[in-house]
Design goal:
about 400 residues, mainly alpha, Helicase, Ruva Protein, domain 3, Lysozyme, two-stranded antiparallel ribbon, 7 strands
Length: about 400
């Protein structure tokens, strides 16, 4: 099959991925994957070599289901991740790779603080890249039926990298979710955004800092990053507002926020960006931020709201901003209480996603709706009082 045609077909399959076939008997699942690989134009020899030693890894599924840290509220989660080690080495690396960051900002417009934040939070600057066999992880997660549409395409992307001699299924290791390298990119992202920045003839995200940082910047740019624009700013409120207007899905112009008495805590609100959202991760008594359009690009890297907010704030810290003011939020719910509230919400028709005890976007939105119905401040922060009266 001509190379250009094969890549075109590959992109189509990466986007559709047989509509997420999963589950059943593993050997049959694997045979289906192999057949589909050959239909893409890969030879039987390449396909057999690629899948020769693949196996299911139950530890991958254990890791997928045991992300307990995301149950912590922002005021606890963020300081735990933005620790002294990461602050020290983050600033040290900003100096060490200053020329690299200068070049990246000139080409892609992605801030050095943002890249260093991901570099730190994902792998502690490359020190902890994961010890899971990448192909086993991808196949396991594709076979599992929780998110096959995400992980099945990654198998074919890894196969394409293998055909280019850029992926070794026997030795490539990384995170439990199949990400590779210092900034933890999935094979499809490497295919589309990998950069050989050090010009040694290969894209090496595991040991080449310049390759990793350039690739991450290219990826963020492709996801919609806007040059010379902010992503997150801590703010203060001069007066009470309608708390139902808060949340990442509620957008106003910066001028409208100013008219509501919102000002920057340390710097003036920007003139450039037109729109922003007011986010209050622990309700009206906790920390407050304006999130701009670049903030939403963070979600393309990680879907967790609390992780994204932490990464965005950490990027600010690395560029000189103080730590956020925690405020004095009302006590929240523990995991079991959150699951009970989610169950109650679901039973009366509200969307909460999975009943997992995590305060995700759907649960926040539903809590706001309930709070407004009950004529309570609709700040999306679940409390014992709300659990008892709802």
């Amino acid at each position: 099959m001509p190379f250009v045609f094969k890549v075109t077909v590959l992109i189509f399959v990466l986007n559709t991925a047989a509509l997420g076939k999963c589950g059943g008997e593993f050997n049959q699942f694997l045979e289906d994957i192999k057949k589909e690989s050959q239909e893409l134009g890969y030879t039987e020899k390449i396909v057999d070599a690629f899948f020769e030693n693949v196996s299911l890894n139950s530890k991958v599924l254990d890791a997928d289901r045991a992300q307990g840290i995301f149950l912590r509220p922002f005021n606890e989660f963020a300081p735990r991740l933005i620790n002294e080690y990461r602050m020290y080495h983050g600033k040290k690396n900003l100096k060490k790779y200053s020329s690299t960051f200068n070049e990246i900002e000139n080409i892609f417009g992605v801030s050095r603080g943002v890249l260093t934040s991901f570099w730190a939070l994902e792998t502690d600057f490359g020190a902890v890249q994961g010890n899971f066999n990448t192909l086993d992880a991808l196949v396991t997660l594709a076979f599992d039926c929780r998110r096959p549409l995400l992980f099945r395409p990654q198998i074919f992307a890894a196969l394409e990298l293998f055909s280019r001699n850029e992926f070794n299924p026997a030795t490539t290791k990384g995170a439990w979710a199949g990400e590779i390298g210092m900034v933890q990119m999935l094979p499809k992202d490497i295919l589309e955004n990998g950069v050989d920045a050090d010009r040694d003839g290969k894209i090496n995200l595991q040991s080449s800092t310049s390759d990793a940082l350039f690739s991450a910047a290219k990826m963020l740019k492709s996801l919609g990053w806007k040059s010379n624009e902010p992503w997150l700013q801590e703010v203060i409120l001069a007066k009470e507002i309608d708390w139902f207007d808060t949340g990442t899905d509620k957008i106003k112009t910066v001028k409208e926020w100013k008219n509501l008495g919102i000002t920057g805590k340390y710097t003036d609100l920007p003139v450039g960006p037109d729109n922003a959202s007011l986010i209050i991760p622990q309700g009206r008594k906790g920390p407050k931020f304006l999130a701009y359009s670049n903030f939403h690009v963070f979600f393309e890297w990680n879907k967790s709201f609390i992780y994204v907010l932490t990464a965005a704030h950490f990027a600010n810290r690395l560029e000189g901003s103080p730590a956020f003011s925690p405020g004095n939020p009302d006590k929240g719910l523990n995991k079991n209480q959150m699951k009970l509230l989610q169950t109650k919400l679901k039973n009366v028709g509200y969307e909460v996603g999975q009943i997992d005890g995590i305060l995700g976007a759907k649960t926040r939105r539903s809590i706001q709706e309930v709070q407004r119905t009950l004529k309570k401040p609709a700040d999306a922060w679940p409390t014992i009082e709300l659990l008892e009266i709802f």
